Amino acid sequence: MADRKVAFLGLGVMGYPMAGHLARAGFVVTVYNRTSAKASQWVAAHGGTSAATPADAARGAAVVLMCVGNDDDVRSVAMGDAGAVSSMAPGSILVDHTTASARVALDLHAAAKARGVGFLDAPVSGGQAGAENGKLTVMVGGEEKTFASAEPVLLTYARAVTLMGGPGSGQLTKMVNQICIAGLVQALSEGINFASKAGLDAELVLDVIGKGAAQSWQMENRGKTMLADKFDFGFAVDWMRKDLSLCLAEARVNGAALPVTAVVDQFYSGVQARGGGRWDSSSLIRLLRDSS
C-alpha cells in the first residue's frame, strides 16, 4: 500500500505476533491493548507507538486491524465512545480478525459505511503457531474493492487470504471451520483411546493411519500431545466453546442441523467442569480416559 500507516487493536496470543509481522514488513504500526503494559511491551520489542484508546490508535491509519475476544469486545473497541470507527477517515479500512457473529459483522459494516470507511470481517485459522509463523488462513467477508486494497496487508501474516462473499461471509466460513474441527477432535480422541484399550502402540497407529485417509491437521499436530496427556498450550477450551456457541446460534437461525457439534459442545462443557477451561481443545480425550 502507498500509505504504510496502520493500527492494530488487541495484542493477545494472536494479535501480538500478527502486529509484529506488520512492523517487520515495514508498516508504521500504532497498537492499542486494553492492558497498556502489553502494548508497551510490544512497542519495546517492535518499535512503533501505542495509543490510550482505539480511536487514538486508528486516527490517521489507512488500515485498522483488530483481534479481540467476542462480540461485546468488538462493539466496544470499534463502535464505543472511544471506538476506532469514530476517528477513521473516509476511504480507510477496518478489518476485524476476531471470531465473532455474523450479526456483529453486519452491524459493523453498516457503522463503517456510514462514515465512508471500508469494512472486512476476516477471522483466521491456524492458531498461535500460525500467527507466530505468519501462516494463517484468513476467511474474508466484504466488498471486492475493499478486499483488494487490504489484501497486501493481510498477506503479511497469512499464507492464504480468500474473499468468501459479502459482509458476514468470513464469520460464517469460520463457523464451518470450527464445526469441522470439533468433530475431528472428538473422533481423534475416541480413536486414540480405542487404540490404547486394544493394547496397540498408539503412537505407531497414528504414524500409520496418518499416511492414509484418516490424516488431518489435528492428528498431525495434536496426536502425540494427546498421547502424552499434555494440554497446557494451544487453543483454549473456553474459546472453543465460545466459537461453538456462535455456530449453534447461527444454526438456529438458518435451520442447519448440527447434532454432532451440539454433543461435542457439551463434552467441552464437561472439560470446563473439571477445571480445563484453559486447556487446549484436544483435551476432549481426558473425558474418555477419566471415565474408564
Provide key terms for this protein.
9-stranded mixed sheet; alpha/beta; single chain; N-(1-d-carboxylethyl)-l-norvaline Dehydrogenase, domain 2; 292 residues; 2 domains; Rossmann fold; 13 helices
General description of the model:
- The longest helix has 29 residues, at 169-197.
- By secondary structure, this protein is an alpha/beta fold.
- The protein is built from 13 helices and 9 strands.
- The chain is globular, with a radius of gyration of 20 Å.
- 52% of the residues lie in helices and 14% in strands.
- The chain starts with a strand and ends with a helix.
Mean pLDDT: 97
Tell me about the biggest sheet?
9 strands, mixed
* Main CATH class of the largest domain: Alpha Beta
Q: Strand pairing plus helix content: what structural class?
A: alpha/beta
Helical fraction equals: 40-55%
What's the CATH H-level superfamily name of the largest domain? NAD(P)-binding Rossmann-like Domain
Using the 3D structure, state the CATH architecture of the largest domain: 3-Layer(aba) Sandwich
Q: What is the count of β-strands?
A: 9
Count of discrete domains: 2
Strand percentage, roughly?
5-15%
Shape: globular
Poorly predicted residue ranges: none
Number of helical stretches of at least 4 residues: 13
CATH topology descriptor of the largest domain: Rossmann fold
Cα gyration radius (Å)? 20 Å
